[in-house]
Amino acid sequence: MFLIKIKSLKINYTNHSHLSFDLWLTLIKSNPEFKSKRNLLFKDFFDVDTTIEKVNDVVRYYDALCNNINERTGLNIDTYEIYYLILSALNVNINDYDTTKLELFYKETELLFLKYKPELLYDNIPQLFKEITQQEKTINLLSNTAFIKGNTLRKILSHYELDSFFKFQIYSDEVGLSKPNNEIFQMVFNQANEIKPITKKGILHVGDNIVADYNGAINFGFDAHLLKL
């Protein structure tokens, strides 16, 4: 029997030839310094006339709200749309900022994100992926996004030398769909079958979110493992 060991966690993937992994709070967690510095940058960049505490509260609220909406609709709210919602809630006239300005802010945010990189949740992830792929099993990444786009997250996976383990990566901002939408799991199934013929039950999706990851995968027909941190 083959077991994945993640610290004290064990996942039995004996009967699976392809594994799909969520990203946030499954493989990585946010650097504790990043969000506070990002919010301060937001306040300064857009000349927001309020306290940083208020900015923190509004950003946190819309982060959770948009994530919830994405899970309910199965679609994806664009990063710049989230910016506009936050700016409006902070009494900033959104007509003063076109998307070119938002793109400049995102580029500065990305630099900050790459300076204060997310941290791997488990030290043995590279070894874990190596063990899986050495058994001729394949791996993909399937992640919902919000403030940080898939293109930026790819850079993080490259930094940790994990990108080469993934046969493909799917991000909600790039496909316009979010977990638990059946259509995004269908994308996983289609791309996995381009590698080798496989049934839905031959795929195990691993994630931390009971709605997006566990229920989404099970409802589509995959097997699933819910991580409990």
Automatic annotation (TrEMBL):
It comes from the Bacteria. NCBIfam families: HAD-SF-IA-v1. This is Phosphoglycolate phosphatase. It comes from Flavobacterium hydatis (Cytophaga aquatilis).
